[in-house]
Amino acid sequence: MGYRVFDWGWKFPSPLQTAEAFVDGFANGHLFGSILASMRRLLISFVISILLGTGLGFLFARFRFLDETFGFLVVALQTVPSIAWLPFAIIWFGLNDTSVIFITAIGATWTMSMASRTGIAQISKIHLRAARMMGTGNGLKLFYQVMLPAAFPHLITGVRVAWAFAWRALTAGELIGRGLGLGQTLQDSRDIGDTATLLCVVIIIALIGTISDHFCFKRLEDGIMVRFGLHAAKN
Amino acid sequence: MIEIEKVSKAFEQKQKKSYQVLDDVSFTIKQGEFVSLLGPSGCGKSTLLNLIAGFEKSYSGTIRVNGEPVKGPGAGKVVVFQEHGLFPWMNVLDNVAFGLKQQGIPKKKRYERALEGIKSVHLSKFIDRYPHELSGGMKQRVAIARALVMEPDILLMDEPFAALDEQTRYILQKDLEDIWLKTRKTVLFITHNIREAVLLSDRVLVMATQPGRIKKEFVIQAARPHQAGDPLIHHYENKIMETLTEELEKVVREEMGHDYRLEKNAVPSLPDHDLGIGI
Ligand SMILES: Nc1ncnc2c1ncn2[C@@H]1O[C@H](COP(=O)(O)OP(=O)(O)O)[C@@H](O)[C@H]1O
Ligand SMILES: [Mg+2]
User: Fold this and answer.
1) Is A130–B74 a contact, with Cβ atoms under 8 angstroms apart?
2) Contact indicator for B7, B62 with CB cutoff of 8 Å
3) Structural domain count of chain A
4) Could you tell me the pTM of the whole model?
């Protein structure tokens, strides 16, 4: 037993080793650079998928024939892990940032579009009628002044899930992609057997995911729910 | 002015023949008149109001508002819905100012006007509350303010007080009457409450059901403001009750089977009446 632990020692980094790798990584700027590069890709993909998903969802909610054809396809696409698109992406865009951004965006778009579709389909008829009666017309004004805010409780849930999906897709993509990033750091560290840095990166990924969800989206969601009177007021 | 001429409306139904909701409805509401539309639930009152409001398109006949055929929502007619329809993400002030915003009125100006409107329904203390923080009666007041600030010619109200308790309903009726006496808007008021209709209206149109038609018209010739204790008002209430009971019987028979009849004197508030006969 003791022998095994000793033998596998380098495979299971101690807290001290991990802390050391942490300090070193940040001291030489590599970890920080990776985080920045990953966040950049993540944010680009995230914005694309939120806009695209919301737009698609709106179209599905608005046009039944789209919903009955393409909408069904989206449900199927949603079940495909986005990393499965990477080979295609590499053929189309090459083994570069664009590919990683592509699969990250695709990982979050479908779930966002489903949330947006539900949110917009569930807007009460009376709100739409009230809006048109007050002169919003049927176009853009109605969309951003009434439909978007009315669908917000669903949209924000979609955004939260989309963020989590994007995070996963990004890490998976970066493992294979080239350049600087958290995923690449994982891969590089595996190549040289630097398990302490591996664990560091995993911890960083978990931290960023949790912190952003808790301090950003959860706050936003709670605020909106309270505003809409959907939460029984806290305490 | 609202002119309804030979309006019929049917809803298409899947695999069944279409359902005739309104059949050859004609009436006119004069400028500044307060008219109630009374009828059993399901007789097509809301459908008719939605046609006038411009929310529904397919129908036969003509509907003209101030001489112009109805093309869509807006244009001088506003609706107060039974379920208030306030936007939950906006506070009272923004809800009331929303219509003015659509007209491109600058912020300062529209808030001024909204505040005035809110004051007229006695809610000045609540301008920064959100709808879910208001009682049912307060929400309905906001809905009325939101409609009035747009300075419409025509106010369409679809059972606006139906979801309120007795006391609140009574106070809101009084307030609405005050507002109407001041502004003299043309009002089409839908209700299934006879007393409410008689107290508020110059004229009450009673609808027949399946299909919806205008069955009888009552001109309320009593001094304004109408008093609940006035024997004349009481007389109208009874007359309307008679007319309505026939329709209610029809609905009940439709739902419960053909052997069902409302007992004579089945309506507790009117013990001294022959119900369902004589019209
Ligand atoms: N969109 C619709 N499609 C089919 N039937 C409808 C629709 N809207 C209303 N109806 C039917 O038309 C009838 C009249 O409805 P409505 O005008 O709401 O009645 P009221 O307001 O008098 O209670 C009801 O039987 C209702 O079921
Ligand atoms: Mg109705």
Assistant:
1) no
2) yes
3) 1
4) 0.84
